[in-house]
Amino acid sequence: MLIGIVGKANVGKSTFFKAITLADTEIANFPFATIKPHHGIGYVKISCVDREFGKQCKPREGYCKNGFRFVPVELLDVAGLVPGAHLGKGMGNQFLDDLRQADVLIHVIDAAGSTNEMGEPREPGSYDPANDIRFLETELDMWYLQILKKGWEKFARMAYMEHVPAYHAIAKQFGGLKINEDMVRNIISKLGLDSENAASWTEDNLANFAVALRIASKPMIIVANKADIPIALENIERLKKEFPEHTIIACSADSELALKEATKAKLIDYVPGEAGFYLVDEQKLNEAQKRALDFIKTNVMDKLHGTGCQQALDYAVFNLLGYMAIYPGGVNKLEDQYGNPLPDCFLMPPKSTALDFANKIHTDLGKNFIKAMDVKTKKAVGKEYLLKHLDVMEIITSK
């Protein structure tokens, strides 16, 4: 799974990325501070099952804090897009290509309206952030349409003559964007298009198909950043009414980064995604740090009930993609060979089965699968058993 962080230049994308990953990435107040895409590891947050078993887990990857398990996911921060990106403006073609493998997009916007369409700093409230939502969708839609129309007439005619279904040919055309035949077939059916003769599709058909395919293959959440600036909250409420089809989460990436760094320095105790934090030792804080933390508490935590960063990441993975967190474990023993309780937790896509989970752990477990045990209920299940979020499963094999 790959989560793409997108948006125009200078809206706080790199700050959001650094706040989530604590990666060493450049943050600057000018367009195109990010040129090459940055990869990093963030962590989605779940209620850890260790509490149900009365044991403290010891994760092999990620960490567990205050009863919450943080499971690693990969993130990609691409350079800021500008209007006309699909035409190559602002190195747009390169940055769009960087997003090919993304499963879900987090679109960071400047909710305070303090950057113009080119990502240049302006006074807060001088720009309408609604334009950013429309612009990015337009760029992605046009990108998809370009891919679709590349050699379309010849491609559609050949598919028709060779009796190849449209969904098969189109899925092959979009293979690099993680698009499969079922996805294409469902959209063709939904739009009422001729699946046997793609050559009959009109320009409007192609445009509508490109939009529908983008929505299906690159689900997106809007992160309304800079929510600590007063005018931002007013803008966010308006955006939620104007774009009811989107989930819009108010966010202050600056605040999340400050809290993460203060936690790393052992100045505060903070669990990402929670609505508050605690001072570890007030005596260690200088006056500037105290003022900064007071500002975050009053203007971010109390108003937003969190910084919004963790909430956005969790929503992208569990709500938009529908992934589930599944633990390997034993009915009689939850520890690994080194005595670590519940060391692993895997993120599985929706409709995953017990056999899928066995193969995820190791292909040998899949090959020799006999049954699985639901550790919580102590009941045996077959290979077709559909997994549920926070299941703990033991795989029984013939070897």
Name of the top-level CATH class of the largest domain: Alpha Beta
What fraction, in percent, of the residue positions are helical?
Answer: 25-40%
Q: How widely separated are the two ends?
A: 31 Å
How many extended strands? Answer: 14
If helices are DSSP runs of H or I spanning 4 or more residues, what is the number of helices? 14
Total domains, how many?
A: 3
Largest sheet: 7 strands, mixed
Q: Roughly what fraction of the amino acids lie in strands?
A: 15-25%
Average pLDDT taken over every residue: 90
Unreliably modeled segments:
24-35
CATH hierarchy: architecture of the largest domain: 3-Layer(aba) Sandwich
CATH topology of the largest domain, by name, is: Rossmann fold
Sheet/helix structural class? alpha/beta
Instruction: Tell me the overall shape.
Output: flat
Give the CATH superfamily of the largest domain.
Answer: P-loop containing nucleotide triphosphate hydrolases
Q: What does it look like?
A:
By secondary structure, the chain is of the alpha/beta class. The chain folds into 3 domains: 227 residues, P-loop containing nucleotide triphosphate hydrolases (Rossmann fold, 3-Layer(aba) Sandwich); 73 residues, Helicase, Ruva Protein, domain 3 (Orthogonal Bundle); 72 residues, Beta-grasp domain (Ubiquitin-like (UB roll)), CATH 3.10.20.30. It is 38% helix and 18% strand. The strands form 3 sheets. Strands 1, 2, 3, 4, 5, 6 and 7 form a 7-stranded mixed sheet that branches. Strands 11-10-14-12-13 form a 5-stranded mixed sheet. The longest helix has 20 residues. It starts with a strand and ends with a strand. About 3% of the residues have low confidence.
